[in-house]
Amino acid sequence: IIETNGLLYMTLDSNPGGIRIAEKLGLHKHEELPRFFNKFVYSEALWSRLAYRMRDMTVDDIPRVLQIWAELELQEGSLSVKSFLSAKAGQYVVAVDNRTDQILGVCALTKVMENTYIIGLYGVDRRYQGLGIGSHIFSTIMTHIGPDDSAVLFSEHHLQDMYRERLGFSHDSGIQLIAYECRPVRTRNLQNLVDSIAGIRIKRIGDSLMDSVVEYDRKVHRQSRAQVLNRMFSDPECRALVAIDESGDQVAGYGVIHMCSDGNGRVGPLYADSESVAELLLRELIDNFPEMVVKGLIYEPLANNTGAMSIADKLGLKVEVKLPVLFTKQIDMDFQWDKVYCSHSPNFSII
Ligand SMILES: CC(C)(COP(=O)(O)OP(=O)(O)OC[C@H]1O[C@@H](n2cnc3c(N)ncnc32)[C@H](O)[C@@H]1OP(=O)(O)O)[C@@H](O)C(=O)NCCC(=O)NCCS
Q1: 260: which DSSP letter?
Q2: Does pLDDT of 40 surpass 80?
Q3: Angle at 173 between CA 172 and CA 178, to 5 degrees
Q4: Whose CA is nearest to atom 20 of ligand 1?
Q5: Angular region, 304: left φ>0, alpha ψ -120 to 50, beta rest
């Protein structure tokens, strides 16, 4: 930062020498932070020389965006970002340094259903936090929310008060995302999951089954996500299985596992007609694609599906954190909740 943008110099008012040094350097007082004690922030150039612009995110930006995201110790996979971005399912914005063209921050807005948009992937490169870039990207994204629309997000704990009190996300849906501790799956625990169900066949999702799975997803989600799903299933990174009920040759569930930027494999969507079908799909995903879970499994169901939690217990997973779903306006969520075992991605989708 010093080399490219300037010097950020903070001193305490209890040390006149600290202030004199700032004056000798010709720094001007930028801000006074009186919250705990008087702390002066002197800045020469950091604010004035850091010029950035907002632009739409492109597919080429995905590696850098995921690098920022991984450095923030948050998890997302290029498969999700690519599928939603290339299907033009919303507005995806990055803040870019004018001089270096480097991406400094990102935020995503995806249409979930009529008048409802989810905000996700909200992050700023650690080195550039606290300079107003985050608020700027967020307010840029919010300009796409009309007066009749509701915006929704999965809130990190430390930001809940800000979202609720300062940014208008005052409606708590009562729904929570449960993030389980991410760890490799033990073979012993995997054996606790069902390994077969009479009349249910597990198959890879190829071209011939894509339409049936998209239709199954539409019934669960109540909205067609054909564009996003077709892109996702056609992507070489996608590892996806479908459960077929042989009695009527019907889809009884489907599951996807993909690699996140931190090297962990994330399950989602995992939708199924019953807990046993969800269990079987998960077991088969792990058995068929073991390379996805060498480091760890990201398993994040919604708390209103008790079956999903009992699967976590069978796998020996421990709850790490619960994230509430906050809205700017109350909306009707008419999803088939009982079929949702893991959501698609909390950055792009409610379920
Ligand atoms: C949240 C985050 C994107 C904010 O980016 P930023 O560039 O540092 O934000 P700003 O400089 O605009 O704002 C800094 C201050 O405003 C708050 N703020 C953050 N986003 C804001 C917004 N959209 N509007 C108003 N205030 C905001 C911050 O909490 C901070 O307040 P504080 O000084 O009282 O601590 C950044 O801290 C980050 O990447 N955090 C880790 C990832 C994360 O938690 N993402 C949110 C997932 S729900």
Answers
A1: B
A2: no
A3: 100
A4: 135
A5: alpha
Q: Is 134 in the pocket of ligand 1 (CB under 6 A)?
A: yes
What are the structure tokens assigned to 194, written together? Answer: 């069902």
Overall average pLDDT of the 209-213 stretch: 96
Ligand 1 centroid, distance to 13 Cα (angstroms): 26
Q: How far is the CA of 22 from the centre of ligand 1 (A)?
A: 27
φ, ψ of residue 311 in degrees (nearest 5) = -65, -40
**Domains in the chain with CATH codes:** 7-48 (no CATH), 51-168 (3.40.630.30), 179-342 (3.40.630.90)
Q: Which residues, in sequence order, are CB contacts of 166 under 8 Å at separation 6+?
A: none
**What are the pLDDT digits (tens) for 54-84?**
999 999 999 999 999 999 999 999 999 999 9
Q: Which residue is closest in CA terms to ligand 1's atom 43?
A: 123
- Please state, in angstroms and rounded to a whole number, the distance separating the CA atoms of residues 84 and 306: 28
Which residue type sits at 287? D
3-class SS of residue 306 = helix
Tokens of 329: 């306006």
Rounded to whole angstroms, the Cα distance separating 19 from 14 reads 9
- Supply the DSSP string of 262-278, one letter for each residue: TS-EEEEEEEESSHHHH
Rounded to whole angstroms, how far apart are CA atoms 56 and 189? Answer: 44
